[in-house]
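Input.
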Amino acid sequence: QVQLVESGGGLVQAGGSLRLSCAASGGTFSSLACGWFRQVPGKERTIVAAISWTAAVTYYPDSVKARFTISKDNAKNTLYLQMNNLKPDDTARYYCAAFDTGHSANYAYFRSSDYDYWGQGTQVTVSS
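Output.
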């Protein structure tokens, strides 16, 4: 069983930056494929970024491409999301997610249904 705890959310002005962290415990972090999702009330949870277990493959939707960067530090069992040039539309609750690939397929998975483990989320609010 993998536990995930997000941190780093907050209030920031448009154009600013935040770095989210997701600390993992209880599993083999190096074999986890991970992702960041976000959700606003009344809407579906959507992918923000995904990374393969090797960290060699990443995925970003067009809405955040060139602004957000996902990374994972196996030594610290931590997943990160660097968010630059934030926009009011980025306001949402951000969740990290993971599943254990068993060191198999080296993909960046972008569907929420692919993931087994979820954190509780951290709120990001971008003011205009």
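The chain has a mean pLDDT of 96.
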